[in-house]
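## retry 2 of 3
previous attempt timed out at serialization; input unchanged, resubmitting
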Amino acid sequence: MAIDQRKREKITRIVALLLFSGHALIVSKLVNVQITKADSHAREQAVRTARPAYKRGSGQFERGRRGTIVDARGTPLALGFDTYRLVVDPGLELGPEEPDLRARLDICADALENVGVQFRRDLFLERGLDRFFESSIPGAEPRKRRRRVLIDGLEPAERDYLASVLWPSVESDARPIRGFTFEAESAREYPSSGLVSEIVGFVGQSATDPETGDRGRAGIEYALDRLLAGTRGAFFCQRDGRGREYDLNGFWLEEPRDGVDIGLTIDVQIQDIVDRAIRKVHAEVPCAAVSGIVLETATGRILAMKSTPSATIEDLREGRAKFEDLQCRAATHLYPPGSTFKPFVVARALEAGVVDWGDRFDTNNGRKRLEYGRGGRIVNDSKPHQILSLSEVISLSSNIGMAEIGLYRLKPEGLHDAITSFGFGKRTGILIPGEPRGDFTSKEKMNPLFFGTSASYGQEISLTPLQLAARFSIFGTGGVYAEPTVVAWVKDGERRVENRRRRVRMVREDVANAIRAALVETVETGTAKFLNELDWSVAAKTGTAQILPPRDGVPHFNSSVVALAPAETPRITVYVAVHEVSGRTFYGGSTAGPAVGEIIDQTLRLLGEPPNKQETR
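## retry succeeded, writing output
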């Protein structure tokens, strides 16, 4: 009996120890789950809860939202959002009570029809049931096709409805339908495509490398693609023994990050003004193209920049236009500036002390031979004149007077130095892809006679309209050059960073102001008298440059007008260039002049600038 009693006590102690150990393990586990790892479990649960049902069980890379581009008034110019494709993966095994693949496809098709999606049901079912595809190896067996895209381009609301059918809520008695998932596709919408397509650009897939997905292909979309695109995130899911993914311990290896939003300096309302004005010129003047620019004189902010002919992104995608139709000609194409270049040469000659406002120039009734070295060259004016003051050389646009300044006063090498000192031959640095440097001959290769004469009145040199317009603003700012900009700010989350570009002095203040006074005289009594009828005073310069050699024996010209308004305290710089004009009417005042007047009038009224000359008509 005593032995049995001892055995019972021993067994009791062992059982008690086991019970105590079991309770201790349970308590330890509860402490570990509810206290020690509570935060990590909460984070995992938050991730699982945040991920929608259609993404669960699917470890994949996920994109952030592409950034939005807006104009100066906050008007959306490019919006990024996702559309979705429905994918079937019948490789997932089905339970004994689940419907077969055909029945599941019918359920999906019914749901798509209920929500109003337009599609062909027969093709939808055929695509879903097609389990095989032909091998590229001759004579080889067809291989199994596991994953198949059933339909793409689904809107978020359509996806949500279909997801509710495939994965009913917990409160519902319906079983989830397995084997389907959604994949996001990046989509991009351009509400003002026709007005800003050449600046904003577009996104698309590369024909040579479609795996890279949608990337910026032109304009700001291309220049700032890395900022706009954001970064992809990777969600980690474990797999079971059969290779099926499950989400019990899923977590983000790297969370997706949305792209930054970008604000442009472009004002769509001013862009529309410029667009209508240059389209009218293109319709009335025989020419290849027309470019128009409006700058905020003091800051270099580009309020409008438009060219015609132009195209929308839809035109390009549907084959109605070529890629060059979406190029921003005002920033990417080179043209001889003609007489709009003359004020820069006079400014440097004044600073160098080789000319004075009291100087007189004999233009010999509009035709004069200039001798230099062992040669000579005849230079012509568009109209005959005799003795002209320096101010009249500018206002009446005398090529002879300018050639004497370039050839005899500055000398060819000094003229070359003057041109480079303004930064001509360099890019402005604007974020428009494809901007060239500008072109003129080097000192070593130049013909002194031809360069000294032609370059002084805007031949023998090629610039973009933007390069000339931005630097012309110095005559409205007292000689200070503000680098032009089209991007005003970038915003990453709550942090907004302003784009501040350089401001440098290019011309002495007294010289810049004196040149502006001569440009006012150009409007009052010179070649730009067509701007006299505006309600604002204007300082302007016309330009006409012949394009050499002639095409098919027909002369072509580049005609332009650049203006500052109001003249006393310029608020805007307006430039219109009419490219490759053919016909009898080719001077800048006749071709580009009406558009410049219309743009100044409508833009200053839109900006609320009060007239400074007369009562508003």
